[in-house]
Every structure is written in structure tokens, then in C-alpha cells.
Amino acid sequence: MFLSKRKKFVFIAVVLSVGFVGINFLSDQYRFLAIGGLTALTTIFFVWSLWEGLGRNATLL
């Protein structure tokens, strides 16, 4: 899926914002698990947004 940098930024911002707001509605037993999942999702989005600029040299990661 090819998106411009602006569209990627908006998509990532909306998804993570909904995730952070959604954590407030979870019970305490699932909250830490959801925070861990959101952390993993943030890392995946970070790599996705930088992927085309990394090329063969992935030293930023």
C-alpha cells in the first residue's frame, strides 16, 4: 500500500489516538496488555514510515 508521507502521518496519528483513548475504556486486567500492544504497533508504524528512506542501510533501527 503506497501512501504519501502526509497520508501516512494522518493514518498513524488517528490509529494511535484511537488506541490511546480506547485504553481508558478497558478494565485494569487488560490495560497493561493493551499498552504493550500499542507499543508494538507504534514500533511497526515507525518502521513503516521510515522504510523507503532506509534502503539497505537500516542503522536507524
Polypeptide structure, described:
Keywords: Membrane, Transmembrane, Transmembrane helix. The chain crosses the membrane at residues 9-26, 32-51. This protein is an all-alpha fold and 61 residues long. It has one domain (10-53). Helices cover 75% and strands 0% of the residues. The chain is built from two helices and no strands. Helix 1 packs antiparallel against helix 2 (28-54). It is elongated. The protein starts with a helix and ends in a 7-residue tail after the last helix.
Give the tags:
mainly alpha; 61 residues; elongated
Draw up the topology in text:
Blueprint: H1 5-23, H2 28-54
Helix pairs in contact: 1-2
Question: Which structural class do you get from the secondary structure elements?
Answer: mainly alpha
Low-confidence stretches: none
Number of separate helices: 2
Number of strands: 0
Taken as a percent bin, the fraction of beta residues is: under 5%
Residue share in helix: over 70%
What can be said about the biggest beta sheet? none
Structural shape: elongated
| Distance between the amino and carboxyl termini | 22 Å
Question: What's the average pLDDT?
Answer: 87
The radius of gyration over CA amounts to 14 Å
Q: List the helices and strands in order.
A: HH
Number of domains: 1
